[in-house]
Design goal:
Elements: E1 11-12, E2 15-16, H1 20-28, H2 32-41, E3 47-51, E4 61-65, H3 66-80, E5 87-90, H4 97-109, E6 112-115, E7 130-135, H5 137-141, E8 150-155, H6 162-168, E9 174-181, E10 186-192, E11 200-201, E12 204-205, E13 213-215, E14 220-223, E15 228-232, E16 241-251, E17 254-260, E18 265-267, E19 270-272, H7 274-281, E20 289-296, E21 300-308, H8 314-326, E22 338-342, H9 355-364
C-alpha cells in the first residue's frame, strides 16, 4: 500500500508542505530517525515495523498495516474531537509506536504538530498552547505547573499513581490514562483522570478518582475463562487479541482493569493482584516501587514490597513500616511480609520497570537490598 497523500492542513514545526518530497526533505534536516520513518510511511511497503516495549516480555519487532494505523488515528480524532488544525506536541520517542502514531495522526487528520526532544521535562521553557499531547507518567509529574498549556493529554507507558492524580485535579488540562499495546496500535480505550465533574460520559458524571476505561469506536470487548480482557477491533487488528489483563466488565464498552494474570500472587490460597495493592500503597510511598510474590515454604508465595531508594536510614524504614500498618485500605493479606530497598530498578528502553529482572537482584546480590 503506497501512501502518497497527506492532509492539506498538516504542518510540522509550523512549516506547511505541498508534496511528500518536501516533507521528507524537511525531516532529513532535523531528525534521521523521523526521516527514515516518514520515508517508509510514504513507500510502497504495506506495513510498518515497530518495536514492542518489552515490559511484559522480550522486546520484539512486529509489522502493522499502514491502513490500520490510519484507522487508529481516525478513531483517536473522533473520540477526542480533534479535527484539522489541531495543535499538538510530540514529546515521545519516535522509535516506538506511541511517538510514531502522533506523526500519523497529524498527517492523517491535518494537525499542526511540533516535535521536541523526548525529555523528562517536556514543557520546560515552552510558552505555546496546545490542543493535544501524549506523555508518560514521569513527564506528567514534571509538567504539573505547566499543564494549562495543553487542553487534552493522554498518558501511557505506566500507571499514574494516586498521588499524581491528586496533583492534577485542579488543572484545566483534561488528562486521560490509556489502555493499549503495540499490537492494538496504541490505545483502544481511555480513562479520565481528572475534572470528573465536567465530564459527561454516556449520560452519567463522575465525581471521584474512580473511573473506568471506555473503548474507542469500533472496538468490542469481552472476557475469557481467566477473566482476562479479549479485544476484537477489526479496524486496527486482523486478529482477536487475548490479553493477560484481568478486568471487570462494567458495560459493553467499559471495563475496570484489575491487574496482570501473570502477576497474580497466590499466598496461602488467597489471590492477590499486585497492581491493586500498588494503587493503595501509592498513597503513602512517593518513590518508585512495586510488589511481587516470592517463594515461601508455608504460604507458597509471600507478598514483598520492593522500593527504589538510593539511600535508606533506620528512621525512613521505621516511618514507612508505621504508615503501612496504619493504611486502612490495605487488608491483612495485602500487607507486605517483607520490604526491600534497591538503589536502582532495572528498566526497559522505554523506562518501564522490569520486575522479574529487578527481583533477580534479591537473589544474585543480597547485599544490594535492606530487609526488615
Amino acid at each position: 500500500m503506497k501512501i502518497d497523500k497527506f492532509h492539506t492542513s498538516f504542518q510540522l514545526n509550523e512549516v506547511s508542505f505541498a508534496s511528500v518530497n518536501e516533507i521528507l526533505s524537511y525531516a532529513s534536516r532535523f531528525s534521521v530517525e523521523i526521516h527514515h520513518f516518514l520515508k517508509t510511511w510514504f513507500s510502497e511497503e504495506a506495513y510498518i515495523t515497530v518495536k514492542t516495549s518489552g515490559s511484559t516480555g522480550i522486546p520484539k519487532d512486529i509489522k502493522l498495516e499502514k491502513s490500520k494505523m490510519m484507522n487508529s488515528a481516525l478513531a483517536t480524532g473522533a473520540f477526542f474531537e480533534l479535527k484539522e488544525n489541531t495543535t499538538a506536541l510530540l514529546c515521545l520517542p519516535t522509535e516506538y509506536i506511541a511517538g510514531k502514531m502522533m506523526l500519523i495522526r497529524a498527517l492523517t487528520l491535518g494537525w499542526q504538530l511540533d516535535i521536541i526532544s523526548p525529555t523528562s521535562f517536556p514543557l520546560r521553557g515552552m510558552k505555546k498552547l496546545y490542543d493535544f499531547s501524549a506523555m508518560v507518567p514521569l513527564q506528567l509529574e514534571n509538567s504539573i505547573n505547566s499543564l494549562h498549556q495543553i487542553k487534552k493529554l493522554i498518558v501511557g507507558g505506566g500507571v499514574v499513581s494516586n498521588q499524581l492524580q491528586d496533583k492534577i485535579q485542579s488543572s484545566s488540562c483534561s488528562v486521560f490514562a490509556t489502555y493499549g499495546m503495540t499490537e492494538t496500535i496504541t490505545h483502544i480505550a481511555v480513562k479520565r483522570l481528572n475534572n470528573f465533574s465536567s465530564l459527561q460520559n454516556n449520560g452519567h458524571k463522575k465525581s471521584s478518582h474512580k473511573d473506568f476505561y471506555q473503548t474507542l469506536p469500533n472496538v468490542e470487548i469481552y472476557k475469557d475463562v481467566r477473566n482476562c480482557l479479549v479485544i476484537k477491533a477489526p479496524k486496527v487488528s486482523n486478529e482477536v487479541i487475548f490479553t493477560n489483563d484481568i478486568i471487570q466488565l462494567v458495560s459493553e464498552n467499559q471495563f475496570e482493569w484489575l491487574g496482570r494474570f501473570d502477576n497474580v500472587i497466590n499466598s496461602g490460597g488467597i489471590k492477590l493482584h499486585p497492581e491493586k495493592i500498588e494503587e493503595k500503597l501509592s498513597e503513602i510511598i512517593s518513590k518508585r516501587f512495586f510488589v511481587a510474590g516470592v517463594s515461601d515454604e508455608q504460604l507458597g508465595q509471600k507478598l514483598v514490597l520492593i522500593i527504589e531508594h538510593p539511600f535508606i536510614t533506620n528512621k525512613i524504614k521505621g516511618e514507612l513500616k508505621l504508615k503501612i500498618q496504619q493504611l486502612e485500605s490495605l487488608t491483612k493479606f495485602e500487607s507486605p511480609k517483607e520490604i526491600y530497598f534497591v538503589a536502582k530498578f532495572i528498566e526497559t528502553e522505554t523506562n518501564k520497570i522490569r520486575r522479574n529482572k529487578t527481583l533477580d537482584l534479591l537473589k544474585m546480590n543480597p547485599g544490594s537490598v535492606v530487609r526488615f
